[in-house]
Every structure is written in structure tokens, then in C-alpha cells.
Write a sequence for this structure.
């Protein structure tokens, strides 16, 4: 076997682009790809201060689902899920997208009511959803402890069979390769340090590799969005928090679906290679430190062991954190900003991996056109003033 | 785990506390515009660096107090 060719060039920045995307994670890359694919806009640079997809894109637990409560969320996440269903073929790259089913467990009467309500709401929105009682949960995932004496009794679960996981690195590489093939410049080691502003409009960015003029500037910087926006004089309703996850040593196949429990802040799946991948809830405080407290991992493990007594002897291989951008209603912010030609796509917080293609699609449309994409429109910044929040704390809650 | 100095109890583990976010956000007095109200409810600073924030010693003396904490190094110092 020969070493594969490099998947993208490593170009030096040009003096000017039609669109400069700040941040080369999944969302930045998907936005670049769809700008070219859907809108024929290829004079585009993606500026990444580190290496491509070394931020949250490399750190997430890759859960993909679309069973959100509200119409606006269901629409955008379902759009994304539909794109996932054709993405490996379209990008000509095996994304290891595996629709193995996602369970969201209910541990209390409140959870049961919320879950059943969400199943009904999902169905009305054309999103596949089922309610399983405890016995059906046991049949679907035999290693969950559903006994009545469990500390977190399982009273049922929602199931989205079309949900699952994908291989995050492959997703980033596949998008990068295609964007590069369209002639888009993916520029690594290029940190945006400021903006050229004139008359309330952005005309370029300052970077660690010199100034770059831009027709439009699109932020896709996840946890660092507030820092960037502040450089343009824009305050955003975002708070940056560490979100931790971990993997175990490699195991034989033991778990063939995704299990999430909002109430006890744990979600787990088994990656193709064999490691258990588990995520926690966010650390409470604001941080850009890409690390969190051990007690958060400990609490998450304690809950995981209650649900899966079988994991008692499994050893943790590695823990890490990413910095997630949390919005007040646990929904993203997509659209224009008070600065003309400056766009924002942020606030995906703990759950933006699943949205990678969908966010890229609607963000590209929003940047290319005169108006936000209809699926993005409800997620504009103005909702915090009008009060038209899209409160997904129930469905997004902790994480995933 | 952070070690946070409660003004009443001294240094204690982070998990005795509840986080309160940015300090010094006064309730707006008098009439507010929609924009001002939205800013009061939803807009908080989110700096990369020193941050003045509130902590509640929930499992201790139940006092609210302010500290300054660096959001990259997590170093904690007395609020000035
Ligand atoms: C532990 C963890 C688990 C998660 N689990 C899930 C999950 O199971 N399912 C799910 O859907 N979502 C999950 N998420 C959330 C998901 O990872 C994010 O919402 C999503 O990755 C954010 O978009 P992105 O890929 O573009 O972000 P990132 O990959 O973080 O990309 C942002 C990029 O911007 C760059 N950048 C920042 N500042 C600058 C600058 N000044 N100049 C140039 N570049 C800059 C960064 O270096 C970074 O590469 C999880 C997140 C974490 C941390
Ligand atoms: Zn105290």
C-alpha cells in the first residue's frame, strides 16, 4: 500500500477573496464546500489558526440525530440528517456514517412525558421517532440495566432509528478535499487577529500571515466566536465552556446503538474501532482552557456504571475537552450581524457535529444570497430581542 | 477541580460551589427598550483572559461572592 496523496494543497493566502471563512472546523469546511457546490462561489479562503478540524471537530462524540422538539430545530437538523444519508456517496469518501439508532432514556415521570411529547412532535415534523417502554429498551439494548432497583430506573426511551454516529476525521477530510478541488484555499496556521472595518462594514481581516481583503467574512469559530466578534465590536449572547469526553480501551463489540441520558448527563456509543466513546455535561464555568474538572468525568462515569454495570472493569484510555459556544436557548445563531458583510454561525454548543452538512448548507446560502436561508431565518440574532427563542434545553440539554 | 477561596470559609473545592457567571450585572432601573432588556437578560461578557464572576458556596456557608478567574489558566484571585 502506498501512502495516499495529500488531500488538499497548502496554499499561501492571496491578497483578497470574495468570501473569507474564519475557522476550519467541520462547519467552516462544509460552508466552503457548499458555497462552491451550491452557489458557484469558489474565490474563498478558509482561515484556520491551528490545523484543519483540530478543534471541536476532532473532539466530539459524533452523535447524529434530528429528534429535536420545536419545528424550527426539527427542520434544520432533519435537513442535516438527510444530507448525511447521501454524504459518503457525494463526497466519495467512507464517512463510516452508521444509522444504528439513538436512544434517549427517561428516568422519571417528567422524562417520560417529555419524551412522549417529543416523539409526537417529531412525527408531526416527519422525523422518525418511537417510544419504547422499559422492556422494549431492554430488548433493543440488552446491556442497559433496566431493573426497578437501579439508581436511575429506566422508565422508557425515545428511539430515533435513523440516528447514529460517523467518523469525524473522515468528514473533515472529505469536505476539505472537495472544497480544495473546487479551488478554495484552505489556509492553516493563519489566525485572524482583527478586522478591517469602514463605515459599519467589514472589508477584510488581519491575520498572523498579513492582511486579507474580503467581500464577506463568515465566522465559523465555535468556542472562539465571542473573542472574534468582540474584535469587530459585536457582542453575542454566547458563553464558552469546556465540554469533556473520554474513550475506553478497545473492546469487542458490546454496544450496537447510541444511548443518551440527559438526566444523568451521559451518552455513550462504541466506535467502529472498538472503544467506548462517552461524553459528559459541560463544566459550569466559562473557559477557553480546553480542559475540565475530573469530578465532572467522575460523576458521568458513576452514572454510566449504574446504567451499564458491564462497564465496571473497563479502563479509561483518555479524556479531553473542547470549548463549546453555548447560547441562552441551546439553539444556534446563524445569520448577518450588525456589521455589514460579517456573518455568524455559532452557538451550536454541545451539539453541532450532527449539523455539519446542514449548517454548512444554510450558512453558505445565507452568505451567498440577499437573505438568510429559510431554515436559518428563525435562528437569527434578533430572536433574543423579539423573544422568539427556540428553547431546546429539553432536547439539547446537556449535550451530544 | 478548581480551588476557590470563599471569603467566609477559606479555600474549598469547586464542587462545593454553584457557578453564577459574570459579576456586576445590575437589574436595569426604570424604563428599558427591548434591546436593553435583551442585553440585560442574554448578553454577558465572554473574555479569553481575566473574568470577574460570581460563585455561591452552596454546600458551605451559602454566601454569594465575586472572584476574578483567568479563563485560560483557571488561576483564581481576589476580586479587585
Ligand atoms: C467533547 C465534545 C463532545 C461533543 N459531542 C457532540 C456530539 O456527539 N454530537 C454533536 O452533534 N456535537 C457534539 N459536539 C459539538 C460539536 O463538536 C460542535 O458543535 C462543532 O464541532 C462546532 O463546529 P466546528 O466543527 O466548526 O468547530 P471547531 O472544530 O471547533 O472549529 C472552529 C475552528 O475555528 C478556529 N479558530 C478559532 N479562532 C480562530 C481565529 N482567530 N482565527 C482562525 N481560526 C480560528 C479553531 O481553531 C477551530 O479549528 C461535541 C463537542 C465536544 C467538545
Ligand atoms: Zn463559604
Amino acid at each position: 500500500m502506498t501512502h495516499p496523496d495529500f488531500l488538499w494543497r497548502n496554499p499561501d493566502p492571496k491578497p483578497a477573496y470574495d468570501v473569507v471563512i474564519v475557522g476550519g472546523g467541520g462547519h467552516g469546511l462544509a460552508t466552503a464546500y457548499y458555497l462552491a457546490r451550491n452557489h458557484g462561489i469558489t474565490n474563498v479562503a478558509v482561515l484556520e489558526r491551528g490545523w484543519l478540524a483540530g478543534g471541536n471537530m476532532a473532539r466530539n462524540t459524533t452523535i447524529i440525530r434530528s429528534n429535536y422538539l420545536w419545528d424550527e430545530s426539527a427542520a434544520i437538523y432533519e435537513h442535516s440528517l438527510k444530507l448525511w444519508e447521501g454524504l459518503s456517496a457525494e463526497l466519495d469518501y467512507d464517512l463510516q456514517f452508521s444509522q444504528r439508532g439513538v436512544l434517549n432514556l427517561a428516568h422519571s415521570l417528567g422524562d417520560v412525558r417529555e419524551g412522549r411529547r417529543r416523539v409526537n412532535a417529531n412525527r408531526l415534523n416527519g422525523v422518525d421517532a418511537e417510544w419504547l417502554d422499559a422492556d422494549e429498551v431492554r430488548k433493543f439494548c440488552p446491556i442497559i440495566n433496566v431493573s426497578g432497583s437501579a439508581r436511575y430506573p429506566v422508565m422508557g426511551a425515545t428511539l430515533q432509528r435513523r440516528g447514529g454516529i460517523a467518523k469525524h476525521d473522515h468528514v473533515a477530510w472529505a469536505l476539505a478535499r472537495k472544497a480544495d478541488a473546487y479551488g478554495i484555499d484552505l489556509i492553516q496556521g493563519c489566525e485572524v487577529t482583527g478586522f478591517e472595518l469602514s463605515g459599519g462594514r467589514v472589508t477584510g481581516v488581519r491575520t498572523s500571515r498579513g492582511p486579507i481583503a474580503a467581500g464577506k467574512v463568515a465566522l465559523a469559530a465555535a468556542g472562539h466566536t465571542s473573542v472574534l466578534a468582540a474584535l469587530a465590536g459585536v457582542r453575542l449572547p454566547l458563553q464558552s465552556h469546556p465540554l469533556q469526553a473520554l474513550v475506553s480501551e478497545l473492546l469487542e463489540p458490546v454496544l450496537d446503538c447510541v444511548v443518551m441520558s440527559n438526566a444523568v448527563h451521559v451518552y455513550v456509543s462504541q466506535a467502529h474501532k472498538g472503544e467506548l466513546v462517552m461524553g459528559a455535561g459541560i463544566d459550569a464555568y466559562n473557559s477557553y482552557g480546553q480542559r475540565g474538572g475530573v469530578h465532572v468525568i467522575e460523576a458521568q462515569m458513576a452514572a454510566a456504571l449504574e446504567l451499564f454495570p458491564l462497564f465496571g472493569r473497563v479502563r479509561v484510555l483518555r479524556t479531553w475537552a473542547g470549548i463549546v459556544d453555548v447560547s441562552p436557548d441551546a439553539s444556534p445563531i446563524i445569520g448577518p450581524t450588525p456589521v455589514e458583510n460579517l456573518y455568524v454561525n455559532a452557538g451550536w454548543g454541545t451539539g453541532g457535529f450532527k449539523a455539519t452538512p446542514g449548517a454548512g448548507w444554510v450558512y453558505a446560502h445565507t452568505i451567498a444570497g440577499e437573505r438568510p436561508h429559510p431554515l436559518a431565518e428563525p435562528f437569527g440574532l434578533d430572536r433574543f430581542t423579539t423573544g422568539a427563542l427556540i428553547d431546546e434545553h429539553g432536547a439539547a440539554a446537556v449535550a451530544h | 477541580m478548581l480551588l476557590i477561596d470563599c471569603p467566609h470559609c477559606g479555600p474549598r473545592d469547586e464542587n462545593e460551589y454553584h457557578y453564577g457567571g459574570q459579576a456586576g450585572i445590575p437589574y436595569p432601573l426604570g424604563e428599558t427598550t427591548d434591546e436593553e432588556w435583551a442585553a440585560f437578560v442574554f448578553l454577558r461578557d465572554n473574555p479569553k483572559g481575566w473574568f470577574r464572576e460570581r460563585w455561591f458556596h452552596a454546600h458551605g456557608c451559602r454566601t454569594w461572592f465575586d472572584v476574578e478567574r483567568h479563563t485560560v489558566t483557571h488561576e483564581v484571585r481576589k476580586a479587585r
About this structure: Chain A has eleven helices and 18 strands. The first strand of chain A starts at residue 16 and ends at 22. The interface with chain B takes residues 224, 226-227, 230, 235-240, 284-289, 293-295, 328, 384-386 of chain A (CB under 8 Å). Residues 71-91 of chain A form the longest helix (21 residues).
